[in-house]
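Take a careful look at the sequence and tokenised backbone pasted below. I need to know what the token row says about the fold.
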Amino acid sequence: MDSCLDYLSKNLSPSIAFDVVKRLNNPIVGLEFLELTSDKLNLNHSSETYNLLVKSFCHMGLHDSAKVVFDHMRSDGHMPNSHVLGFLVTSCVQAGKFDTAKVFLAEVQHNDVGIGSFKFNELLIMLVKRNQVDEAVCFFKEYLRLQFPPDTYSFNILIGGLCKVGKVDKAFEFYNDMEIFGCTPDIVTYNSLIDGLCKKHEVDRGHDLLKEVQLRNGISPDVKTYTSVISGYCKSQKMKEASLLLDEMIRSEVMPNERTFNAIVDGFGKVGDMLSAESAYENMLFFGSIPDVYTFTSLIDGYCRNGQVNQGLKLWDMMKAKEISPSLHTYDILIKALCKENRLCEARDFLRQLKFKDIIPKPFVYNPVIDGFCKAGNVDEANVIVAEMEEKRCNPDKLTFTILIIGHCMKGRMFDAISIFKKMSAVGCAPDNITVSSLVSSLLKAGMPDEASRIVQVASEDWNLCSSSFKRTIPSRTNANIPVAA
């Protein structure tokens, strides 16, 4: 070792050391080499060597090791350039090590090294997309503390992120601070705030902000501005206000798009005004907007709400003719409407169609049909539907199990009902008092008090259900009023 170090002391230079680390192609060994030569030879390594190791460790996800290199780098009097610092901070954020990223920024604040507004905004976007809006706010404040000036785009990212998670009042705080930093709100700023207000059901306040935009110089409402308020009015079932704003929008030569018309169609459908909904659909075609699955689903929903299921089925056929694929919501609307009219066979056909679609269904689509067949006494078909559910990777929920338990009890299949209850517990689906009381009541009527007592015991121990007073209602004997089928 001594002769090796003697040789290196005479021949090793920072540039050769960089080449060695690069050729090693192993940052862990490279760091050992760096520490050995720094400690034993007092070699001041080049920035390139440190940058290479920092990047390599980040690529490997070894941010603690990157921090060790970073500390060596600073002690040698080197600072990472903006590019390397940006890479380091971004890598930490991507790895979820937000606090480490802040440490890196804080440690270079006195050395005039920044990450630049572009990289800063990129990091804000990354945090917002990862639903880490609070972290984005914290990062923004840290950036200000380091005396790096934000731009309008920075504010827009934060305001948009806050509005999406419903923190509109907090978004307005940043909006009010923009002028302090010499940033001027643009239409993107206002669109985020208006959309956030409307989604919080503060549509009138959103409309007032739209009017404020109209009065500003150099900025005008666009299709997104109007559509946000129109959609807000439609969801509040204020169709007169929505229609007037649509007319104003067109007069202002801001052309509505598919989203605008879909909001209007859906709004009129929800209030049962299908003449106006159809008229909005015709206007949509007139303005060159192409109806999509949302348009047809809204029309189908409107007709089904009005009890005009056949008209909804005609629109379903029109969708197929236009090769527009229905959504899970489309299926749900028609299946519920058919079940409501006791048209179980047609609802069952829709479930069969869904079986061959690339749609992952939810229990709420199946439950009305299962309930219908159970009430009709056809529990065997209900069981087949549940099996199809599970084939589609759709697990039965609490309502599914409760419907099945009650259905089997009504048919006198008490042991089947008990088995379903046991399966419900086994898969971790917690019953409620309705499930337990329905099964226990049926078991008592069927003259099965011991089984009823065991169900109460399981519900009490496993799910903390059933009061002691309910337990005392179980007699030791009872007359059988329900036939028992094995």
Observations:
- The chain has 28 helices and no strands.
- Residues 396-464 form a domain with the Serine Threonine Protein Phosphatase 5, Tetratricopeptide repeat fold (CATH 1.25.40).
- Residues 22 and 105 are 26 Å apart (CA to CA).
